[in-house]
Write a structure and sequence with these properties.
The complex is a heterodimer of chains A (about 300) and B (about 425).
Chain A (H helix, E strand, L loop, with lengths): L7 H10 L6 H13 L3 E4 L6 H12 L3 E5 L6 H5 E3 L1 H13 L7 H4 L5 E3 L1 H7 L5 E5 L6 H13 L1 E4 L3 E4 L5 E6 L7 H6 L1 E4 L5 H11 L5 H15 L9 H13 L7 H7 L7 H25 L1
Parallel strand pairs in A: 1-8, 1-9, 2-5, 5-8
Antiparallel strand pairs in A: 3-4, 6-7
Chain B lengths: L8 H18 L5 H12 L6 H12 L3 H15 L99 E2 L5 H14 L9 E3 L5 E2 L1 H8 L11 E3 L6 E7 L6 H16 L3 E6 L3 E3 L1 H6 L7 E2 L12 H11 L8 E6 L8 H14 L2 E6 L12 H6 L5 E4 L3 H15 L1
Helix pairs in contact in B: 1-2, 1-4, 2-3, 5-7, 5-12, 9-10
Classes of the chains: A alpha/beta (about 300), B alpha/beta (about 425).
InterPro entries (chain A): AAA+_ATPase, ATPase_dyneun-rel_AAA, CbbQ/NirQ/NorQ/GpvN, P-loop_NTPase
Pfam family, one (chain A): AAA_5
Organism (chain A): Deinococcus seoulensis
């Protein structure tokens, strides 16, 4: 093995130090991103930490994170580069007024008028950045096809300037919530990892890692409650982000255990649909009663 | 990549055999490039650590959650090590044959289950003393690694564990028979499907594309380029406009006994729609719910449609509410305002109507349109008095009849009328 590259265990430890609990499979997949230079497609439910994994990888490698948020209608132009037309026109006008004349194509189509978008930024970086192509399933098929070419060649052609080759190959992470089936071609070009909701113990570790001051009892009760909620037929089950938000909200209210008033006050941090809140009400009441009983007996 | 570890030749050949097994048995899209990547990946991890080997091969060779499950089963079967110790030595030793498998010296993948075929016997392998407690490591092996993959026609019992090949049956379900939905009406149904795809306009996309004549936004790039002809004066304006949104379809077919031949007609229609549009998801339900899209994708376009062993999703009783609710939750991310949800059911249900309401409300909130097609509605004097239909009606854009191919042809026109 190459000693210069972080091992999966190294990555796990470095991630943990930054408050991210990565399992073995994710650490191995991220190690391969660095070692093989292949993009990694991270799929999984919303709120399980896919985007956060990319951010943490950038922090771990000590490199820049460049993020491209995908959306319906995103085109190659918005993702690659744009000419600053307004500035070009002003330059022309200023040249005319100043009587300078002789403004050439080379003047107008030079680097000073080129606005680099995330993908161009990524291939021009001296040190390989982490390129996060977030929610790629939201982009159109055409953009996905364009990505295939970019991920294969790592070069971009700007008609007015010529071909720009990547200085270093970025560490690419694509995320998807599966709102659209991605093409087999894109999947084949990527490593793949499915991120699932963490187990109870893992989630408790995440709470402790991200909120170091949280009360142990509260952390356990919040984690148990979130797992009970995920077992319900909710329209929008809470992700890890919601668990952390909920725990943080309760901490900010100086709660040291779950109780009915605390749940009522902070429910919006964990359940974001009114229907889900109604559906979960009996479960949460039961949990609050259980927690209160445990708290009294403990006290 | 330079600097990666060197892979022993025997390990390389085993990985190669393993990738061939995934490809041949389960249709993984794995070519020589992926096999080479798998070997490079092994060079980047500690091959003495089984979980790292597994994680590396998993990341390279699988490409979807469905494939992950199959990968795990095959990995455990292929690379399991006999003996008390975890792989301290070369970890990827081939497993010796399971008891009872001696006669299968050339055992290959089992043939797909045929209608009327006696079900494969249950695996009788006694648990090995060294079996790890990992619950997903209990996949029995049917074949020693490195052996030829194409083998005889005898069905090894072990493959019963592979989820893509067998569906577990509930007591209420039909005995999991194969579904033959062949017919010579495919060209006719293709015409109906084409008309539906063409006629459905759910609105304009947010995306801006160059338009020939007009649009809501000036296209600065094309306008300036055009201005080159007129010495920099932008006399020819170019515009960006919003194209029509391409529709998506979510078809849910009630495969219960009461649907009779209507269900197979609708299945063929789903196949036709699938051939006409990439954005089609098809589910079938009876007592359970099954996603049919992968099976339709694999089906040969001209051949009669034959789906193997749909289990709880075909020929049993009906639980509309439960299954639609599960569908609404599973497909939540995929159903958007471009989606036409077509529910194909007679509405004869044994479950709770409240669940139907909840599911339809969820689907309605996300989808562009929700339409219920009922074979009963094609009967003269039909009244929507079935409990499930009554629960669904407030959330439907239309309740339309589907008594035959003619109704499918009329679908675009009826949908247009329903939208007004």
């Amino acid at each position: 093995m190459n000693a210069a590259l972080p091992t999966p265990a190294d990555l796990q430890a470095a991630f943990l130090a930054r408050g991210y609990v990565a399992d073995d499979a994710l650490a191995t997949a991220l190690r391969l991103v660095v070692a093989l230079g292949k993009p990694l497609l991270l799929e999984g439910p919303a709120g399980v930490g896919k985007t956060e994994a990319a951010k943490t990888l950038a922090a771990t490698l000590g490199t820049r994170l460049i993020r491209l948020q995908c959306y319906e209608g995103l085109d190659a132009q918005s993702a690659l580069y744009e000419w600053n037309y307004a500035r070009q026109l002003l330059h022309l006008r200023a040249a005319e007024l100043g009587g300078q004349g002789g403004v050439t194509d080379e003047d107008l189509y030079s680097e000073r008028f080129l606005m680099a978008r995330p993908l161009l930024q990524a291939i021009r970086e001296e040190q390989a950045p982490v390129l996060l192509i977030d929610e790629v399933d939201r982009a159109d098929d055409a953009f996905e096809a364009f990505l295939l070419e970019l991920l294969a060649e790592w070069q971009i052609t700007v008609p007015e300037l010529g071909t720009i080759e990547a200085r270093t190959r970025p560490h690419v992470i694509l995320t998807s919530n599966r709102s659209r089936e991605l093409s087999d071609a894109l999947r084949r070009r990527c490593l793949y990892h499915w991120t699932e909701y963490p187990s109870r113990a893992q989630e408790l570790a995440i709470v402790h890692a991200r909120l170091p001051g949280v009360n142990e009892t509260l952390a356990q009760q919040v984690t148990n409650a979130v797992h009970a909620l995920r077992a319900l037929p909710l329209g929008k089950p809470p992700g890890v982000a919601e668990t952390l938000d909920w725990a943080a909200a309760l901490v900010s209210l100086h709660a040291d255990h779950l109780d009915a008033p605390g749940i009522r006050a902070t429910l919006g941090a964990v359940l974001k649909l009114r229907e889900d809140q109604l559906l979960a009400a009996p479960t949460l009441q039961g949990l609050a009663a259980q927690a209160a009983a445990g708290h009294q007996s403990g006290a | 990549m330079s600097g990666l570890g060197v892979i022993p030749p025997d390990l390389a050949s085993q990985v190669s055999a393993f990738t061939a097994r995934l490809r041949d048995r389960h249709g993984f899209l794995i070519g020589p490039g992926e096999t080479a990547d798998a070997l490079r990946a092994l060079g980047a991890v500690d091959v003495l650590e089984r979980r790292e080997v597994r994680g590396a091969l998993r990341a390279v060779l699988s490409a979807s959650p469905e494939q992950l499950r199959l990968f795990d089963l095959e990995f455990n079967a292929f690379f399991r090590v006999e003996g008390a110790a975890q792989p301290k030595l070369p970890p990827l030793l081939p497993e010796t044959k399971a008891p009872g498998g001696e006669e299968q010296t050339d055992a290959g993948p089992p043939p797909p289950p045929q209608p009327g075929q006696r079900p494969a016997p249950k695996p009788t392998r006694a648990p090995a003393p060294d079996d790890t407690p990992d619950p997903d490591e209990d996949a029995p092996d049917s074949q020693a690694p490195g052996q030829p993959l194409d083998g005889d026609d005898t069905a090894p019992p072990d493959d019963a564990a592979v989820p893509s090949l067998r569906a577990r049956l509930s007591p209420n379900a039909a005995p999991g028979q194969a579904v033959q939905a062949g017919g010579d009406d495919l060209p006719d149904l293709l015409r109906a499907a084409s008309a539906l795809v063409r006629s459905l306009h759910l609105g304009r996309a947010r995306r801006l594309k160059p338009q020939a004549n007009r649009g809501p936004k000036l296209d600065a790039r094309r306008t300036l380029r055009a201005a080159a002809r007129t010495a920099g004066d932008a006399t020819l304006l170019r515009w960006l406009g919003r194209p029509r949104r391409a529709p998506r379809f979510l078809l849910v077919i009630d495969g219960s006994r009461s649907m009779g031949t209507d269900a197979t007609l609708l299945l063929r229609f789903a196949q036709a729609l699938h051939l006409r549009s990439r954005r089609v998801e098809v589910y079938a339900f009876s007592t359970g719910l099954t996603r049919l899209t992968p099976a339709l994708r694999r089906a040969a376009p001209g051949a009669p449609l034959s789906l193997l062993d749909l289990g709880e999703a075909w020929g049993g009783g009906t639980r509309i509410g439960e299954n639609l609710l599960r569908l609404a939750r599973e497909e939540r991310a995929r159903v958007n305002r471009d989606t036409l949800v077509l529910i194909l059911s007679d509405g004869l249900d044994t479950g709770e109507p409240a669940l139907v309401s909840r599911a339809l409300r969820d689907l309605r909130a996300q989808a562009g349109q929700v339409v219920w097609l009922s074979p009963l509605a094609a009967l003269p004097g039909y009244q929507p008095v079935q409990r499930a239909i009554m629960a669904a009606l407030p959330f439907l854009d239309a309740l339309l009849p589907v008594g035959g191919a003619a109704d499918l042809h009329a679908l675009p026109r009826r949908l247009k009328t329903a939208r007004r």
